[in-house]
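Batch manifest, entry 17 of 40.
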Amino acid sequence: PLDFKLVVGNAEPNPPENVQASSGYREVTVSWEDACCSEESLQYPATYYKVFRNGGYLTDVTRTFFIDNVPAGSEYCYTISAEDSYGTEGPKSEIKCAKGMYAPPATLSSDILKNTIALSWLSVNDVSGYHLYRNDSLIVETKDLSYLEKGLKFDTSYDYKIASYDKDGDDGPY
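Output type: structure tokens
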């Protein structure tokens, strides 16, 4: 007699785990970990991942990250699903959201006279304004392209940084 054992692995892939979405200059990077397969499972490993943005299908990727080039200033939400070599798609991951960020001004110039500093910078298109920081503390929120600070202490070091911000007041990189 013919004797054989047949095991059909038709379990859908698990959703990816530890999904992260991080903001970057006019991009969002989404990363995740594969949640596949214990030795006892009947699952097949993921062949690729489906990326969804704001509920709609975006693309397929074979890596466990995706860089989405997006306009700055808006939030984008992502889910990921795994698909095996048989075309079985698993459930979507948890939703993670991030924004594309505006670039900082290209230059931050300074003119110093005694204990006064005049700072100026170039405009960044479409930003709502600029946050100017001294020693990592916000000192001014402005739409102007310059700032004058008087009364600085002599023999003191000051570190200035500037960031563009969006309509929600969220900073891009320095």
